[in-house]
Structures are given as structure tokens and as C-alpha cells.
Amino acid sequence: MKKTAKRKINNIFKNAYIGFVYLFLFLPIIVIVVFSFNTSRMNITFQGFTTKWYISMFSNTTLMEALINTLFIAVVSTFVSGVIGTLAAVGMNKFNFRGKRIIEALLYVPVVIPEIVLGIALLSVFSILNMELGLFTIILSHITFSVPFVIITVRARISGLDRSIEEAAMDLGANKFKTFIKITLPMIAPGVLSGIMLAFTLSLDDVVISFFTAGPGSNTLPLKIFSMIKTGVTPEVNVLSTLIILVTIMGLACVTFAQARKIKSIKN
Q: How far from chain centre, in Å, is Cα 89?
């Protein structure tokens, strides 16, 4: 009886601890969602319920322009860094060349150094090359710090592959390109997808590097929100954040559902 009571108490404490952890993690998100329906434009206290901000958000031209710029930069930089990172990871895994260890070590430099240092370095490079700051320089900057993340993620997936499958495909007459497209790429697809999602997320919420490499007319959503902190974040920002959270949850749900169906089909 004492052991049963003690076990129940331990379970209560464990569940309470887990509940507090999840509350700590998700409380800011809940506050954003709730305040997106706030009648007060000051966005300090909740004064009443309204949905008008969900309509007025689309008429906020500066906010919509910043969102479009952010999505454009994220999509382009993610695509380019995904292609470069995947090819680099495959090449570094298959081939041995002089200076390979040095390149592998240098991959972690953009990952571990502070973003402000990388932002200043990129700004210096663009200044030396006399490049006009704008969307193009932001895209180049995002590609620069995203590629190492993609390479590291894809290489982690490649390291566990069975090379005999590729060799069997080539023995059956497939060339290197066909083997890569038909065999290698599908096997490393989860790693590529993880690297692409990581690169997209990093690009979507970057503030520091974008601050140093942005020019006139190239304002991004994080920079726009950052500039609004002094005057107050409007409910339209909460609405946009809520919609982004909703889209993210739907995307995760679709991926989870697809993986569950794939696992079920394999078992059957």
C-alpha cells in the first residue's frame, strides 16, 4: 500500500512538472493568439474580443510588403542552400581530397560564431565589392549561413547509408547520375528535408544578419517587428503570427500523417 501511494505521488509530481514545462513553452504562443483578438490597439491589456484585425492586417501595406520580402528571401535562399548543401554533403562523403579535414572543420565556423560577427563580416565583403544593399545581398547572406546547416544535417543521414545498394544499382547498368537520382536521393530525402526546413526557419526569423545586409526597400518581417518595439507592436502582428503558427501546425500535421502512413504501409 505504501509503495502504491508513493508511486501515485511520484506520478502526480511528474505530471505537474511536465505540465509546467509545457505551459512555460507554450504560454507566449497562447498570449499571442489571444491578443490577436484584442480590441485595444495598444496591445498591453486585453480589453475585449474582436476579429477586425484579421481584416485590417491585409490592408497594412508595409507589413504585407515585409512579409512578401521575407517569404521570397526564405524560399530562394532555402532552395539554393538546399541544392548546394546536399551536393556538397554527398561529395564530401564519397570523395577524399586534399584539405578535406580543414573544410569539414570550417563548416562549423558559421554555425558557432555569433551572428553579429557574421553580419559585420558580410557587410564588409559587400562594401569591398561595392554591392548595393538590398534583397540580393540578404539572400546571399542567408545562403551563406544556411549551407553549413544543410551540409551537417544531410551528412548525418548519409553516414548511415548502405553503400552496397548504390553499388548494386551501378552493377545493373545505372550511371552515377541515375544512381544518385533513383537511389541516393530518395534514401537521404529525410535528411535533405530536415536541412531544408532548418534553413527555411533560420531565414524566416533572422534579424541580426538581415539588419546588416538590408538596404532601402528591402525590409523583412523580423526587421519590421523589431522596429515597432519602441512604438508598440500592433495587433496585426499578432494576427500574422497566429496565422504563421496555424500554417506551421498544419504542415507538421501533414508531415506526421504522411510518415505514419508510410510506416503503416511498410509494416503491411
A: 19
